[in-house]
């Protein structure tokens, strides 16, 4: 009986010495492709979804019936290339800006809803593109030579869980 009493006393003292379990650190979710990030194009504030994975880029704005003014989607790549886009299953006309790694808008073209012909950039120095509703660039006064805010793009990529420097040097 003495042994049992000593064992219980030792157990009770050890239990009193225990520290409370640490509170788990909150895990934050990475932002999805549906999150819109504030990105200036020229002097105009826009909100862009960032398509980064192959699946996100292949889906793009398919099925999107309308875009709110000043909202669009950027398609990001890891290296400069000549870009080719088409409008399969996209029910609205879009403007596409072809943008250099330095953030300079190289050209803007209009793509027609449902068109399965490719729209190709003239330059092979395109790092990413931005799609906006048709006519947006003209209405907003954003033109070839204007810049896209790369710091904002990097912040969005980071929030999405990607290494921004892989896409924007």
Description:
With 169 residues, the protein is an alpha+beta fold. The protein has one domain (2-166): Sandwich (Jelly Rolls). It has four helices and eight strands; from the N terminus they run αββαββββββαα. It has helices spanning 2-16, 54-59, 136-140, 150-159, and strands spanning 37-41, 44-51, 71-81, 84-85, 94-99, 105-111, 119-120, 126-133. The strands form two sheets. It has a six-stranded mixed β-sheet with strand order 1-2-3-8-5-6. The protein has a two-stranded antiparallel ribbon with strand order 4-7. The longest helix has 15 residues, at 2-16. The chain is globular, with a radius of gyration of 25 Å.
Strand arrangement across the biggest beta sheet: 1-2-3-8-5-6
**CATH fourth-tier homologous superfamily:** Protein of unknown function DUF192
Round the Cα radius of gyration to an integer and report it.
25 Å
Task: Please give the share of residues in helix.
Answer: 10-25%
The total strand number stands at 8
| Envelope shape | globular
CATH architecture: Sandwich
Query: Structural class, from helix and strand content?
Result: alpha+beta
Largest sheet: 6 strands, mixed
Q: SSE order, as H and E?
A: HEEHEEEEEEHH
CATH topology: Jelly Rolls
Instruction: List segments where confidence is low: pLDDT < 50 over at least 5 consecutive residues.
Output: 2-28
Count helical runs.
Answer: 4
* Total separate domains: 1
* C-alpha termini separation: 74 Å
CATH class: Mainly Beta
Content of β-strand: 25-35%
- The mean pLDDT is 87
